Amino acid sequence: MAQDCITTQVIVVGAGPVGLMLAGELRLGGADVVVLEQLDAPTTESRASTLHARTMEILDGRGLLDPLGEIPDEPRGHFGGLPLDLTLPSPYPGQWKVPQTRLEELLGEWAARLGAEVRRGHRLTGVTVTDEGVDAEVRGPDGRTALFRAAYLVGCDGEDSAVRRLGGFAFPGTDAARELLRADVAGIDVPNRRFERLPAGLAIAARRPDGVTRVMVHEFGARPRPGQPEFTDVVDAWKRVTGEDIGGGTPLWVNSFGDASRQATAYRSGPLLLAGNAAHRQMPIGGQALNLGLQDAVNLGWKLAAQVTGRAPEDLLDSYHAERHPVGARVLGNIAAQARLLLGGTEVNALREVLAELIPLGHVRTRLAGMISGLDIAYDTDADADTDAGDRPEAGRRLPPRDVTVDGTPVGTAELLRAGQGVLVLPHGDTALRAAAAPWARLVRVADGGPEDTDALLVRPDGYVAWAGTSASGATGALRRWFGEPSAAASPASVRPAPTAAVPALPSVTVTATPKNWRTDMPKLSGKTALVTGSSRGMGRATALRLAQEGALVAVHYATGKEAAEEVVERIEKDGGRAFTVQARLGVPGDVHELFLALEEGLRERTGGTALDILVNNAGVMGGVKPEDTTPEKFDELFAVNAKAPFFLVQRALKNMPDGGRIISISSGLTRVANPDEIAYAMTKGAVEQLTLHFAKYLGPRGITVNSVAPGITRNDNPVFGIPEVVEQMAQLSAFNRVGEPEDIADVVAFLASEDARWITGSFVDATGGTLLG
Ligand code: NAP
C-alpha cells in the first residue's frame, strides 16, 4: 500500500521550547519546516522555569518579551547552592521566572504565526538517510504510518531522543550517581528553605504565589532509585532530612532528577542534527539546561535556513557543532561541579567554605555569573577566514543591546534583529563600508553607530558579532564567510522575505503517493533495538541474525553458550549489523535483574539510551519426561524458565519499551497437539499464550503488540536431527513433509517485529508448517 509522503525542507522532532524556537528561527530564515511532536497536547507540567540574561536578550531580539508581560526577576542566584549575585551589565541580569508551559505556548504561537506547521500526536519510528536527505517514518494519531521527507531533520526531542537513537549518535558520559527528589505539593505549610544543608541531606522548599510548594530533597549518600519515585518516597525522604511531615499534602507532580552527564560527540551526522537535551544531558541545576537548549536552537536556525534555501556559504552549517559543542561541554562541566557541591556529603564542607569566601570577590563573581547567565560565550568567528576580526575583543561575543540609528532614526539593536537578518553597525561617518555591504542588503540591515564607534560590527542573526574592523575588504570577507555570495543573497528566488504578517500561507507541504525513489527494500527495523533471549543457538540465533539484517541493534542473550553467542555477534557484525552479547541464566532468583543490568549497559554504550523496542522471549527448555517421571523439581524448572521468566521479562522490559514496541514469545505447537511426554512443557507454553493474550489487551493503548509464535518440530542442536530416519519420521508431521528450519521461525518473528504487523496483537501464529492441520 502506498504511504502518504509529506515533503518539506526541515523536519524538527519535538515541540518543546527548543523545537519551537528552532521552528520559528527556520521560518525567519525562509525555510519550510514541519514540527513533529508525539504528545497530543502540550505538557501541563511546570518543568524548567528559569530564563537567564542571555536568553532574555535573545527573546527580546525576537520581540518575544512583551507578550510575557511582567516577569518576576531574582538577581540572587547560586553556584552549587552558594549564594551568587548574578548582576552583570545586561538589560536583564538575574533569573527570570517564566513557567515552561507559558514559554512553550508563546513560542508555539510565534512559530505558527511565522508559518511553521506543528503536527501533534506524531511519533518518529524510523529514520533513513538517503541521497537527497532524510526520510522519516512517523506514526500518526490514527495509528497509520506516514513518510516525511526533508533535506534535514533535527532532534529537539529531549533526553531520550529518538532521533539520537535512530541516527546512531554516540552519547558518551556518566550515569547518575546521585539524585534529587522533587514534588509540587498543594496543601502543605512548611518553611521556605533555600539549599538548606542539614545533617542528613539537602532540602529546598519554595512556596509559589498559587500556594503550591515545590520541595526538593536529597539524602546524602542515597543512590538513584530505578524508575519514577512515588510521593511516599518524597514524604519519607523529607521526613528523614527535615523532620517535617508533608504526607497530608496533595502531590501535583512528582519526579526525580539525577546528576547524569552525557553529550553527543557530534551534533551533526549528515542531514541529522541534535539540539537541546537531545544533544546533552545534564542535571537541571539553576535552569541552565533550558537556556542552553534555546541558545542551541538560535545558533542553528539561521544557519540551517541558509543551507536549505541554497545561500549558505561552505561550512556554515558545520559551525553549529563547532560553536555549540564546546559551549555545551563547558555548561556540563560547571553543572558537574555544582552537583558535587550541592549533593556531596560532609566531605565537601571544607570545599564549600573555601568557595563561599572566594565567590563574593569581584572577579570570581563576574566570571561565575557570566558562565551561568550565558553572557560570557565567545565563539571563534574568525576560524580560517581571511578577515581582520581576530584582534578585536568584540568578535565572537554577543552584541550587548544598544541604540544605533537607521536613516537618522534611533532604534535598538534588539529591534533590528527581529526580522532574523544580520546587522552591520557602521563606524561614525562611514561611507566606504556601506557601499561595500550594499550587495548583501537583503540579508543584513545597515545601521549607523554613534560618535564613539570607530570599528564596524557585523552581527549575525543570532546576535553574535561575526566581525569587527574598519576595512571594506574585511567587511566583505566576513559577509561572504557568514552570509554567502552576494549573488545568492540578492537572488529573490533563493531568499524569501522573512514573514512578518499574521499567519502566512503554510509552507509547501505536499501530500503525495509513494514517491518514485522511495525504496521498498529498506531495512524494516533500522534504529530499533531488540533483545532475543536464548539466541546463542537454534531459532533464537536465527532470529537475532534476521533482526540484525533488518537493521536492529540486537542483544544476543545466552546462559552457558558464551562462545556460541559471541560467534552470533561476530557474524552479525561481519554482515554490517550491530549486536552485543548479554549473559544471564533464567529461572533463578535475580535472573531478570541481572539480564537487564547487562542489557542496559550494552544499549547505553551503543545508543546513549536504554530504549528497547523489541523483546523476543525465545529461551526455553524442553521436558522429554513421561508424566509419571516428572518430578516437582523438573516441573518447577520448566515453569521457571519457560513461563515465569517471560512474564517478568515483559514486566521489566516495559520500563524501557517505547510506545509502539513489540513483544513476541515463542510458544509451541504442543499447545494444540497432545504429547504425553511433554505435559509439563506444554503447560508452560500454554502459560506463554495466556501471557500474550492478556498483555496484548493491557498494552494496546501504548501501541505495543504482543504475540506468540508456535513452531512445530524445528531443527536445533539436538542429536536426533543427525539421524535421517528420525528426521524423515518427524518430517511427515508437517504438511510440507520436512522439519522446520530455524529461519522459518525467524522470518515470522521478524515480520511480527516490523511495522507491517502493527494490526496484529494477542495473536497465536501457527508456524508449524501445517503440523496442526492433522
Ligand atoms: P535450543 O536450540 O535448545 O536453544 C535454547 C536457547 O535457550 C539457548 O540459547 C540457551 O542458552 C537458552 N536457554 C536455555 N535454558 C536457559 C536458561 N535457563 N536461561 C537462559 N537461557 C537458556 O532452542 P530451540 O530448539 O531453538 O527452541 C527455542 C524456543 O522454541 C524454545 O522456547 C522452545 O521451547 C521453543 N520450541 C522449540 C521447538 C523445536 O522443535 N526446536 C518446537 C517448538 C517450540 P545457552 O545455550 O547459552 O545455555
UniProtKB/TrEMBL annotation:
InterPro entries: FAD-bd, FAD/NAD-bd_sf, KR_dom, NAD(P)-bd_dom_sf, Sc_DH/Rdtase_CS, SDR_fam. Residues 383-403 are annotated as: Disordered. It comes from the Bacteria. Residues 528-712 form the Ketoreductase domain. Pfam families: adh_short_C2 (PF13561), FAD_binding_3 (PF01494), Rng_hyd_C (PF21274). Residues 389-403 have a biased composition (Basic and acidic residues). Keywords: Oxidoreductase. Belongs to the short-chain dehydrogenases/reductases (SDR) family. This is SDR family oxidoreductase. It comes from Streptomyces lutosisoli. The lineage of its organism: Bacteria, Bacillati, Actinomycetota, Actinomycetes, Kitasatosporales.
